[in-house]
Each structure stands twice: as C-alpha cells, then as structure tokens.
Specification:
Elements: E1 14-19, H1 23-33, E2 40-46, H2 52-61, E3 64-67, H3 71-82, E4 87-90, E5 113-116, H4 123-132, E6 138-145, E7 160-166, H5 167-173, H6 179-187, E8 195-200, E9 207-215, E10 218-226, H7 239-251, E11 259-261
C-alpha cells in the first residue's frame, strides 16, 4: 500500500476486494462504488461463483480484502490473504472460535487481520480496562434477538434465555449470529473468559446488545439497540456493514478505535 510522503507525493487509491455480496458485502460495495471514500477503490467483488483464477488475481491486485461471506469462506480466505502480506477485514470472526484456528496464529503477519466492531461499540474503554489489568475482571455480553434469527423454530410466547456460556461456545453454537461476542472477547479477556448470554424474544423489533464489565478499575454497562437489516432474515444489525465501511475509511489514516487488530495474546 503506497503511503503519502512529506512533500506531497501523490498516492494511488487503496485497492479493495470484497468477498461476498450479501447483507454486509453489498452495502460495502455500494459505498465504494458511490465514491463515499475517494482514497479507496473497489477492484473486485468475489462470490461463491468466482473461479480460483479470478480469486487469485483479485487477491494479488488488492491492498485490502473484506471478507463478508461465511465462516467457511473466512476459514479458507484468511491464510491465502495473510500470506500475501495483504490486510483482511474479517466479518465472520466466529471462525476464530474454532479449535486449531486460533486468532494468535494470524497476529504475526505479514498481512494484518482486522475485525470490525460490528453491532456494538465501546471497545476502546473495554480494551483499555483490559490493558490496565484483567486478572479479576468479568465481562458479560448479552444478545437479545428474534427466535428465527437464532434458528429457533419453537413458538415462544415470551422471551427466553436459550444460551449461557463462553464466547467460544456461543460462536460454535450460533456461528452466524455471534460475531460481536467473538470480536469483543478478542479485544478484551479472550474467548474462554467472556460470558455470553443469548435471549430469544418473540416480540423483538430490533437487536439488543448489553456489555457489562466489572474490575478493580471500574464498572461499565454499554447498551445498544440496532435496527435489523431487512435482507438478513433478522440476523444482522443494519449498523454492521457501516462499521466495515468506517474501518476502511480509517485505514488510510491508520487503524482507529473502530477495529480490533489481531496480535499476540494479552498478558493476563
């Protein structure tokens, strides 16, 4: 990626390849095509129908790859992109919950792995609190969604807690709806220390997230209520795709607080 030098040397736009043209990917593609970020150009859009030759050429030409497809796609794409020395923004970050596919293995490059914060925020203060000391810290992430978004076919008359466990267990149980839990865990205490509670609410008209932190440093409670993208069958908050766009916009200036950059595990 060519950077601006002192003295005004002209730089070319950052080349972005988007993998996936569904709920998240299409918003990102449209934002790039609408010239919302003049320093960034869309060079390729890949789908499950793209050939191996098209994929290789797109990765070689890109500075940044946005994975907005599935956990299965992320599992395949990550090593291919990182070994080329290219950055990759991973939306299906539930892939890091899989045993033997640890986030720490991608923290040494050469390409960077970046996770958007997605449907929730406050990662800056939670990451700072973790850095200050996490031995006695506790973090609980509660998600409230429609039953059908969680794959629950049973008719419910009232809200019901359907899961309580670690962020890793949540991602393995709900691989399509636990990306926020994985991102917040990787930014803070880790996949096996963050508690996740999943609630199915038949009356939900939005997706709600509550992050509750307690440590010697302080107590924080962050609440988010997100509109649901109508094309996502109730699974995806509309803000999620825009968090990816915000990360792309920040990359030309350096990574800001709206992203999680994988690296060596934190000292506990």
């Amino acid at each position: 990626m060519r950077q601006l030098a002192v003295g005004g040397i002209e730089r070319r736009p950052i080349a972005v390849c988007v993998v996936g043209a569904g709920t998240i990917g299409q918003v990102v593609v449209d934002a790039l095509r609408n010239d919302a970020m003049p320093d960034i150009s869309l060079t390729a859009v890949l789908t499950s129908r793209s050939s191996a030759e098209e994929t290789d050429a797109a990765f070689d030409a890109a500075d940044i790859v946005v994975e907005a497809a599935t956990v299965e796609a992320a599992r395949t794409l990550l090593p291919e992109v990182v070994k080329r020395g290219k950055d990759i923004i991973v939306c299906s970050c539930g892939v890091f919950a899989e045993y033997g596919f640890g986030a720490e293995s991608f923290g040494s490059g050469p390409g960077r792995v970046v996770l958007p914060t997605g449907a929730i925020g406050g990662f800056d203060i939670l990451a700072a609190a973790t850095r200050a000391g996490s031995r006695d810290a506790r973090l609980t992430h509660t998600t409230i969604k429609r039953p059908n978004a969680l794959g629950i076919e049973e008719h419910l008359d009232t809200e019901r807690e359907v899961f309580r466990g670690t962020a890793r267990e949540a991602a393995l149980t709900f691989p399509r709806t636990s990306n926020s839990s994985v991102a917040i865990a990787l930014a803070t205490l880790g996949l096996d220390r963050v508690e996740v509670v999943v609630v199915a609410d038949p009356d939900a008209t939005s997706t709600r997230h509550i992050a509750e932190w307690a440590s010697l440093l302080g107590r924080y409670k962050l609440t988010f209520e997100n509109s649901i993208d109508p094309t996502s069958s109730g699974r995806t908050s509309a803000i999620t795709a825009w968090s990816v766009v915000e990360v792309l916009a920040a990359l030309s200036q350096g990574i800001g607080p709206g992203a999680v950059v994988l690296g060596p595990p934190r000292r506990q």
